[in-house]
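Subgroup meeting minutes
Present: P.N., E.W., G.H.
Scribe: E.W.

1. P.N. recapped why we're keeping a running log of single-chain structure predictions: easier to compare across weeks, and new members can see raw inputs and outputs side by side.
2. G.H. added today's entry (213 aa).
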Amino acid sequence: MSQSYTKYFALGSSTDIDEQEHFPTEGEVNAHLKLMKSFQNLRKTVIVSSDVKAGAKSWQVFVTNAARRFIIYVSALKCYMFPNSVEAHYPIDEEIMYKKACARNRRSLDIMSNHLPPLDIVMVWHAFALNPRVLYDTFLRNDFLTFVFIPFPLRLLSEAISDATFEYLPNVALVSGFHKIMNAYGVTMEYEFNGPFIANITRVPVFCPTLTL
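Output recorded in log:
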């Protein structure tokens, strides 16, 4: 197991990992529970209205915007990992694409171990990963199959979440690493969400390829 892989993903000692049965370790379970609590706190920050319908709508809009931010993040990450022609890395043949993507890429793991995205993007990534067939198909069609084989950064996330308050507090280096990727893509993205989220005044740019004004 490479140093980058261990730093990025593994939790607990090597003897704590059940490689035969693939059971989660105690450290992984605790880390996942911390992450779920952090998601819950994020939702509470977004929903401040006592009106159930208004709160549900605010959360719906927030998650939709989070999905949009996830798409931008993944697009930036793809360009950052493969700044040259994408076709050179991903031939049309799916079998060749699969073999290339599932091989451990030291550079990709180094990039992933040196940044963390905002919590709303992490939430979308986590939900997407729960549907592996859709995840695989989506990234296959978008020529970024490497992302499917990148381990979810459970260890980094656990270290970034407070044990006391479950607040998401990545260190400066990890936040700077995220902004470095986004800046290379020519995009500026807010990292922290301080709430409350007001759905009816939130605006995002939308590109329509068939409409010219």
